[in-house]
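Dear Dr. L.,

I hope this message finds you well. Following up on our conversation about the binding site, I have prepared a predicted three-dimensional model of the protein together with 3-phosphoglyceric acid. For your records, I am including the exact sequence and ligand specification that went into the calculation, followed by the structure tokens. Please feel free to forward this to your student if that is useful.
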Amino acid sequence: IDELLAEGVAGKRIFVRADLNVPLDGTTITDDGRIRAVLPTVKALADAGARVVVASHLGRPKGAPDPAFSLAPAATRLGELLGADVPFATDTVGESARATVAGLADGQVAVVENLRFNAGETSKDDAERGAFADQLAALADVYVGDGFGAVHRKHASVYDLPARLPHAAGYLIATEVGVLRKLTDDVKRPYAVVLGGAKVSDKLAVIDRLLGKADRLLIGGGMVFTFLKAKGHEIGSSLVQEDQLPVVREYIERAEKNGVELVLPVDVVVAPEFPDLKTKAPGRPSTVAADAIPAGQMGLDIGPESRKLYASKIVDAATVFWNGPMGVFEHPDFAEGTKAVAQALLDSQAFTVVGGGDSAAAVRILGFDENAFGHISTGGGASLEYLEGKTLPGLAALED
Ligand code: 3PG
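The resulting structure of the complex is given below.
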């Protein structure tokens, strides 16, 4: 983007593909981190006199307009953060978008409606995606990719559009890739990776890769119970992915063979049922040994001994990557494990990266100062796929 700015962008229409996929409660944004993350790029372009068209997906609508997934709240918030009037187009490439872009003054920023209201955005059919990319291309002279959270998606606005316009990477993508390179190219050891989240199937590829890369692999969240069951333990009514047991057993063996320390909880916080996250009614928690969860009890967080254990593995590491909460952090009775991991990252002298999505939101929702962490990635799936060593369509398209 610096080269683009040096060439001069005044009067040019610049399409910024951002990731404004923020968590919403109705129309209230509960965490605006992703909007703030794209501000440096948007501001730099606007300050240089560009006419900036910001586009993003939000949620997973089904290729047609759906008011529940409107980008309007994100556009309003972007306007507040910029301290400027940000016009909002009520469609993505239709009459409203064309008129909004045509009406932009130099240095002004507009937002168009959710890209995924158009079936072409996410289509698996190259021609259909290409046709939508053509419509997007008609809105702008130059493309700036800065939606790091979506670079792993082969979508029209991420992959096909940059091929149709002069293109550059924005500041957010440049920062994110710079940080993640430090975890893949010459990582400082000991390298500890903390992985949480509900489903082990989402993390298989990254675990596979890390078994040859990390020194310590700490497992938390719902996927813990598939690991515990694979080791032959009783897990009560906890979440389990039976079909993943063979692969998890293989990982446990491979960790041992490769000298990777695979850390599992020694105790867990359980309850008779999943807590009510809306009312936050008392969750009736109790702590039990991780190798003997009673029948009728469901594991919902790592226990106090595990918190100490995990913290000890984090604080003296030289590099830490964390993705995924340790428990049901949205409920106060099951938030302590996630809090303890966040605190350990802060207490550690390590280079720390919090990998996107739920863990980034958890850090902010639990009241931690996000600036105290080394780097909080805006990409959950994107940062994991980067660590898996995959070619990310949105990065490949910009490297061209
Ligand atoms: C994310 O939230 O990880 C990104 O915005 C990508 O969203 P998606 O998983 O719906 O493609």
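In brief: The chain has 17 helices and 19 strands.

With kind regards,
A. P.
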